[in-house]
Amino acid sequence: MSSEVVEDEISSFFESSPPLKNMDGIIKKLNRFIKLNSSSRGENHQSDWREEDRVCVTSGGTTVPLEQRCVRYIDNFSSGNRGAASTENFVKAGYAVIFLYRRGTCQPYCRSLPDDPFLECFEFRDKRNIQVHASHLEAVKLAVMDHQAAVADGRLLKLPFSTIYEYLQMLRLIATALKDVGSCSMFYLAAAVSDFYVPWESMTEHKIESGSGPLDIRLAQVPKMLSILRSNWAPNAFCISFKLETDSKILIEKATKALQKYKVHAVVASELSTRKEEVVVVSSSGNVVVRRDCDKPDESIVEYNLIRLIVDRHSTYIKESHS
Ligand code: PMT
């Protein structure tokens, strides 16, 4: 497909999308965050903190509404675990992170808390006071401290989305806001983005009637945004895309094709059932398998070594683009 046709498809996708709620508020938050991280910072900041490094981490799955006043939607499996764990490690590496996440999915610093923290973590001391249950004290303390430090230090901005329409409009806003940061910015696109959707104008307004028998819905293809992100929205940013397959036999071939087609700097490939154990980073310099190591506390999640590798590659990219 020619680049003009792709651009036309992308324009018509945005033109027919329902407008983003609170767009001005999101732009304000973004600009404030980016400005904060480009002004000179106080002495209490870590010495290895490179104030210009920023990453947009996308996380969780996009939904596809079936009705304009949405009651039903199509969803996918993504838990947001990879995006949340990666965000923590990017913050640790000194990055300012824009965490574009699906509402209700896994959050940075919350991964070690029980699933239902309010009910599980707290107990009444007396009628007026509640306290953290001793068995969860360490996990809660660490989660609260690390999260507050990242936010107070201006290193974490969280922006939620639900639908494919919201996700792609917000990604475009972020890319546009980061354009001037150039090679020091990174896109780490771990979200599971819907490939098919119901165009807004062909969607019924009200709840689909259930009494008229089986339902036929025609889904249109969501245009791939990677191409325009690379060519237009943020051409100098370092760009990491992801590829997930359930058939390991085609995984590397698909990731390699995506690397060439979208001209991203690396593709992180994983297979559904082993995605928490290992990933393969596919790039023009070869393929690197990254595994977790349960014997080492830090490395017990695959994202620890993954982010170290990606940060290292990004540093080389920045140096090369400044030379
Ligand atoms: O959330 P977890 O449960 O921890 O799981 C993490 C993960 C497995 C979801 C994540 O690691 C992952 O692999 N995400 C990408 C899933 C995928 O295969 O996406 P895709 O093949 O549909 O898209 C590939 C790339 O194209 C993605 O980086 C996506 O951002 C991009 N894309 C997709 C659709 C679209 N319309 N435009 C795009 O640019």
The portion of residues forming beta strands comes to 15-25%
Helix content: 25-40%
User: What's the overall geometry?
Assistant: globular
The helix-strand sequence is HHEEEHEHEEHEHEEEHEHEEEH
Number of strands: 14
Classify the oligomer.
Answer: single chain
Tell me the number of helical segments per DSSP (H or I, 4 or more residues long). 9
Structural class: alpha/beta
Give a short account of the largest sheet.
8 strands, mixed
- What gyration radius follows from the Cα positions, in whole Å? 21 Å
Bound molecules: ligand PMT
Strand adjacency order, main sheet: 7-4-1-8-11-12-13-14
Q: Are there runs of 5+ residues with pLDDT below 50, and where?
A: 40-49
Average pLDDT over all residues = 92
What is the CA-CA span between the terminal residues?
Answer: 35 Å
In short:
The chain is built from nine helices and 14 strands. With 323 residues, it is of the alpha/beta class.
If you had to describe this structure to a student in words, what would you say it looks like?
The protein has 323 residues and is an alpha/beta fold. Helices cover 37% and strands 20% of the residues. The protein has helices spanning 3-15, 23-36, 81-92, 117-121, 137-152, 164-178, 226-233, 248-262, 302-322; strands at 54-59, 64-65, 73-74, 96-102, 122-124, 130-132, 156-161, 185-189, 196-197, 220-221, 238-245, 266-271, 278-283, 286-291. The strands form 4 sheets. Strands 7-4-1-8-11-12-13-14 form an 8-stranded mixed sheet, with helices on both faces. Strands 2-3 form a two-stranded antiparallel sheet. Helix 8 links the parallel strand 11 and strand 12. Helix 2 runs parallel beside helix 6 (164-178) and helix 3 (81-92) packs across helix 9 (302-322). The model is unreliable at 40-49 (pLDDT under 50). The structure holds ligand PMT. Residues 78-82, 189-193, 195, 222, 224-226, 241-244, 270, 275 line the site of ligand PMT. Residues 52-101, 174-277 form the DNA/pantothenate metabolism flavoprotein C-terminal domain. InterPro entries: CoaB-like_sf, DNA/pantothenate-metab_flavo_C. This is Phosphopantothenate--cysteine ligase 2-like isoform X1.
